[in-house]
Specification:
The complex is a heterodimer of chains A (327) and B (263).
Chain A lengths: L4 E5 L1 E2 L2 E2 L2 H16 L3 E6 L3 H4 L10 E5 L9 H15 L3 E5 L2 H13 L3 E6 L1 E5 L2 E8 L4 E7 L5 E5 L15 E4 L11 E8 L12 E5 L9 H11 L2 E4 L1 H5 L20 E5 L5 H7 L4 E6 L6 H4 L2 E4 L2 H16 L1
Parallel strand pairs in A: 1-4, 1-6, 4-5, 5-12, 6-11, 7-11, 14-15, 14-16, 16-17, 17-18
Antiparallel strand pairs in A: 2-3, 8-9, 9-10
Chain B lengths: L1 E6 L1 E3 L21 E3 L1 H17 L4 E7 L5 H10 L3 E5 L9 H15 L3 E5 L10 H9 L3 E10 L5 E8 L2 E8 L2 E5 L11 H7 L4 E4 L15 E8 L7 E2 L5 H14 L5
Parallel strand pairs in B: 1-4, 1-6, 4-5, 5-11, 6-10, 7-10
Antiparallel strand pairs in B: 2-3, 7-8, 8-9
Helix pairs in contact in B: 2-5, 3-4
Classes of the chains: A alpha/beta (327), B alpha/beta (263).
C-alpha cells in the first residue's frame, strides 16, 4: 500500500470548502508517521482559481481537473477522476470532507479501486504503522476505532470542524492541469440546478453557531426570535424533531438522530428538553447552552451553561446583550 | 416495473446504546429493533410508484440481516410490498458495507430490477456507504438523499431533488438507478390490519451465501473494529442564576464571552 495521501479539494459554488485545510492537517498526521507526501486534487468549475489558495500548505502538488465532463459534480465523473489518480500515483490514503459531496463520492470511488472507506471520522492517527480512525456510531451514542485490513487504498471522510486547519508552511506546491479522462455522455445522473433552501440561511452542518428551538417555541413565527440571535453570529437556526413534527420548523434544519448531526462551537438550545435522539445529534458541540423552564430536563445533563426560565423572556435579553458586546 | 427496496433492522432511535460485556459490540438485551427509519421512506416511495404504474409492477424487499430481521420484513410486507428476499448467513454477522453490497448486488441481479430504493443511511453504523458501493458494483447511477422523486411519463428518466448543504440539487437520471431516501421525501404509511393478515401469506425467500453462489464471505473493503468507546461524559452544567432574569442573562452573556470565549 502506498504511503502518500491524496486530499480531495472539494469545491462548491466555485469556492474551496473550509474543510479542505482541515483535511490537509489530517493528512499531515498520517504522513508525519509514514513519511509520505501530501497531494491535492481540485475538480470542477473554480478549481483553477482556487488552487493557489492552498499552495504552500505543505502540499507537494495540486492537480487541477476542470473539463466539460466534470465542471458540475457527479458521483460517477468525480469517482472516475479519483480512481484514475489513485491508480496512477498509488496513493495509500484519500481524504475528503464528510459533506454531502464527500459522503456521496467516497464509497463509489473506494469501490472502483478495491479500497476501503471509513466515513465521517472525527480523528485519524497511525498506530504501530497502521491507520486508526475514530468515528461515531448510533449518531454519536458510541464511538468505534477502525483499522483497515488488506492492502487497498483507504478512503476517509472527515467530519468538518474537528481538526485544526493546516496553516501556511512556506514554499509552494506544483500546480498542474489534468484532463478528467471522463466522457460526459457516459454520466447518467446529471445535476441541472442547485435550489437554495428558502430563507437562504446558513446550513446547520456548516455553521459555527446554532440557535435551536424545540416544542416550547409554540409556533413557527417564534423562530424569527432565534434567527435574530443567530444572525448576530452569522449562525444557523436548528430545531428538534418535536418542533419539526409540530410543524414549527422545516425538516432540513432538524438536529438529531434522524436529522443533521452538528458540531458547532456554540449550540444554544431553547425550549428543547433533550430527548436521546436530539442529544445524539448535537452532543459534540464545543459549548452547549440550555434554556428551559424545566430544571429536570435531560438537556441540562449535556449542557455547559444552563438557565432555568422562560425562553420568550430570556432570548430577547440575550440577543440584546450579545449585540451590545459585539458592537 | 421491478422495484427493489432495501431494508435493515436497527435499534430504535430511543434506545439507550451501551457497549456489551465483551467490549466488541452493543448490548442487545432490552433493545427494541425497528425498520431503519430512512428505509421506511424507501418502502413508501416504492409502494407509491407501484400504485401509480399499476399493471405488473412489483415491490420486492431485500434484507440482509440476522434471523430476527423477519419481523421487520413482515412489517414491510404488511405495508404493501409484494414479496421479500432475506439474506441470512452466520458468516455475515458483522459485515462491512463492501461485503453487504457485494451480496446484495448478487441477490438483486437475480431478482431483476429497474429502480432500487433504500434509506440514506443505517441509523446504527451511520456509514451511508452500501448504496453507493452497490451502485458501482451494479454499474448504475446513484442519487443519494432524495427529497423529491418523479418518474417521467414515458418512464425513460427520473427527476429528483437531492439534499445538500443549504439547498437541494436537481438531478436527472436514466434507469436503472439506486435512490437513497432522506426524511421529507414522503410520509410512510402504517401497516393496516388487512395488510398484516395478507403479509402472513406473502413469500419471504431465504438465501444464504451458498444459495447466492459465494463459496466464502466476499472479502473486499475489509476492516476491523479495534475498540468500542463509550460516549464521552457531558460537561458539568454551570447553572446561571440571579434574582432578576435580566441579571441572569447578563451573567450568561459574560460567561460566554470571558470564560467560554465564544462571543
Amino acid at each position: 500500500m502506498g504511503k502518500d495521501v491524496l486530499v480531495f479539494g472539494e469545491i462548491r459554488n466555485g469556492e474551496l470548502k473550509k474543510v479542505v485545510k482541515e483535511l490537509v492537517a489530517a493528512a499531515a498526521i498520517i504522513t508525519g508517521e509514514t513519511g509520505g507526501a501530501i497531494d491535492a486534487v481540485l475538480v470542477g468549475a473554480g478549481a483553477e482559481k482556487e488552487a493557489p489558495g492552498i499552495s504552500g500548505f505543505g502540499l507537494r502538488k495540486i492537480a487541477v481537473v476542470d473539463d466539460d465532463a466534470v465542471t458540475d459534480y457527479s458521483s460517477e465523473g468525480y469517482a472516475a477522476v479519483l480512481a484514475s489518480l489513485v491508480g496512477e500515483e498509488g496513493y495509500g490514503y484519500v481524504l475528503m470532507g464528510a459533506t454531502s459531496m464527500g459522503r456521496d463520492l467516497g464509497p463509489r470511488a473506494a469501490a472502483k479501486v478495491d479500497g476501503v472507506m471509513f466515513s465521517d471520522c472525527v480523528e485519524v492517527r497511525i498506530d504501530g504503522g497502521a491507520l486508526v480512525a475514530r468515528r461515531p456510531v448510533y449518531s454519536g451514542k458510541l464511538f468505534v476505532e477502525l483499522t483497515p485490513e488488506g492492502d487497498g487504498p483507504v478512503f476517509i471522510s472527515i467530519r468538518p470542524n474537528n481538526i485544526a486547519p493546516a496553516g501556511e508552511s512556506g514554499g509552494s506546491s506544483e500546480i498542474a492541469a489534468r484532463p478528467s479522462g471522463v466522457d460526459r455522455a457516459a454520466i447518467r445522473a446529471i445535476v441541472s440546478e442547485i435550489v437554495p433552501l428558502a430563507g437562504g440561511r446558513p446550513d446547520v452542518t456548516e455553521a459555527d453557531v446554532i440557535v435551536s428551538g424545540g416544542r416550547a417555541m409554540k409556533e413557527e413565527a417564534n423562530f424569527r426570535m432565534l434567527e435574530k440571535l443567530a444572525d448576530l453570529f452569522g449562525g444557523a437556526v436548528g430545531a428538534s424533531r418535536a418542533a419539526v413534527d409540530a410543524g414549527y420548523a422545516e425538516q432540513p434544519i432538524q438536529v438529531g438522530q434522524t436529522g443533521k448531526v452538528v458540531n458547532p462551537k456554540l449550540y444554544i438550545a431553547c425550549g428543547i428538553s433533550g430527548a436521546i435522539q436530539h442529544l445524539a445529534g448535537m452532543r459534540t458541540s464545543k459549548v452547549i447552552v440550555a434554556i428551559n423552564k424545566d430544571a429536570s430536563a435531560p438537556i441540562f445533563e449535556k449542557a455547559h451553561y444552563g438557565i432555568v426560565g422562560d425562553l420568550f423572556e430570556i432570548v430577547p435579553i440575550l440577543t440584546e446583550e450579545i449585540e451590545k458586546m459585539l458592537q | 416495473m421491478k422495484i427493489i427496496v432495501l431494508l435493515k433492522r436497527v435499534p430504535d432511535t430511543e434506545a439507550k446504546i451501551l457497549i456489551n460485556q465483551e467490549g466488541d459490540g452493543i448490548r442487545e438485551d432490552g433493545v427494541k429493533f425497528i425498520i431503519n427509519t430512512y428505509d421506511e421512506y424507501g418502502i413508501e416511495e416504492g409502494l407509491r410508484l407501484k400504485e401509480k404504474l399499476g399493471g405488473d409492477s412489483k415491490v420486492t424487499v431485500v434484507c440482509a440481516g440476522p434471523e430476527e430481521s423477519t419481523e421487520v420484513i413482515r412489517t414491510a410486507l404488511a405495508m404493501g410490498a409484494d414479496d421479500a428476499v432475506h439474506i441470512c448467513d452466520p458468516a455475515l454477522t458483522k459485515p462491512n458495507p463492501f461485503t453487504i453490497a457485494e451480496v446484495l448486488a448478487k441477490a438483486i441481479s437475480e431478482e431483476g430490477f429497474d429502480i432500487i430504493f433504500c434509506g440514506k443511511q443505517g441509523i446504527d453504523d451511520d456509514m451511508a456507504q452500501t448504496q453507493s458501493i452497490l451502485a458501482e458494483k451494479l454499474d448504475i447511477p446513484q442519487v443519494n438523499n432524495a427529497t423529491v422523486f418523479e418518474l417521467a411519463d414515458d418512464l425513460s428518466k427520473v427527476l429528483l431533488n437531492r439534499r445538500i448543504e443549504g439547498g437541494d440539487e436537481k438531478v436527472e437520471t436514466s434507469l436503472p438507478v439506486i435512490i437513497s431516501c432522506e426524511k421529507g421525501l414522503n410520509d410512510p404509511r402504517y401497516a393496516s390490519l388487512p395488510g398484516i393478515m395478507k403479509a402472513k401469506k406473502k413469500e419471504i425467500r431465504g438465501k444464504n451465501l451458498a444459495d447466492l453462489g459465494f463459496n466464502e464471505v466476499p472479502s473486499s473493503g475489509k476492516s476491523r473494529i479495534l475498540k468500542w468507546l463509550p460516549m464521552p461524559k457531558g460537561g458539568e452544567c454551570k447553572m446561571v442564576e440571579a434574582e432578576e432574569t435580566v441579571d441572569t442573562v447578563k451573567e450568561l452573556a459574560r460567561l460566554l464571552r470571558e470564560e467560554a470565549k465564544v462571543v
